[in-house]
Amino acid sequence: MVFGRNGALARFQQPVSDDLKRFREYYKRTLQSGYFVIDRVVSHLCRTHGKGFRPTLTLLSARLGADRANETTIKAAVIVELLHEATLIHDDVVDESPQRRGFPSLPARFKNKVSVLFGDYMLANVLRETLSARDLRWLDILSDTARRMARGELLQAARARKLNMNEEDYLEMIGDKTASLFNACCRMGSLTVGMSDEAVDALGEYGERLGIAFQIRDDLLDIFGDGRGLGKPTGGDLREKKLTLPLLAALSRSGKREASRIRARIRRGVRRSEIEKIKEFIRIKGGEKYAVEYMTEQVNKAVEALHILPESPIRNLMEELAYFAIKRGK
């Protein structure tokens, strides 16, 4: 994910910049095997790696309870990123995506077979690294997260085929697909420095609500952005028959005949020339405004969840980060 045009996420990463260097070294070391085909893929992934939002969340959460990340914290950051990247690879295979973050996707570069197998290889490393921590709480968090992420993907695929998703389905889907991993990042980071159960739960809620808002922002950018905020062309969700909150809100505010006409247009396949008409429909019906308001409400609740923790520069930074995440791409 690209965070603004000037790498604005770096400001929030500055307190954990040394930890992020350790994270990147550990991440690469975990995947490298000495086998040519595997190490070629690893090299490609490291060159096209995202900005590290999820590892940053993990490291900042740990810094709420300690002055510096320990080796267990770095391991946790690597685990959540491995899980995230594995799901992105499988997504790109399923969606036949030619690009990821402005670079050729793994399937475009190495074909589907290698990509699927490498995604599996990453998940195997998630399991190995998790077991090496010898902490059953990690297994609880990650097994539930992996189940939720898979469930969210399946729900989206099933609803896309029939185009019968409603707002409740959508919120459940993005909670599973996206917010569950944000939740895990914050919980894992706080666990590695021995924070209280109350603090771990508060950070989990922060991550969950931030993840929901983050996904809604992605969905808004896909419809109304210029492409640079996502690192891929806009309108992809419409072309892939994915119903997201701005469109669902607009449909719910339309008459039955008009809503059926829009759904039928999406069902048969949206042409590029039709995307502008659907964008205008969403705006006129208030779908964009509704999505922005819901997203902002979730971020406000995420920030509120942090207030059981003592005020500190890191807590303040995490509050700012939440608001920044819903303004990226502007």
Descriptors:
globular; Farnesyl Diphosphate Synthase; mainly alpha; 2 strands; two-stranded antiparallel ribbon; disordered N terminus; 330 residues
Architecture overview:
The longest helix has 28 residues, at 197-224. This protein has 15 helices and two strands. Strands 1-2 form a two-stranded antiparallel sheet. The relative contact order is 0.11. 74% of the residues lie in helices and 1% in strands. The protein has a single domain (10-325), classed as Farnesyl Diphosphate Synthase, CATH 1.10.600. It starts with 9 loop residues before the first helix and ends in a 5-residue tail after the last helix. By secondary structure, it is mostly helical.
Radius of gyration: 20 Å
Order of helices and strands: HHHHHEEHHHHHHHHHH
Largest sheet: 2 strands, antiparallel
Strand content: under 5%
Number of alpha- plus pi-helical segments: 15
CATH class: Mainly Alpha
Q: Any idea how many domains?
A: 1
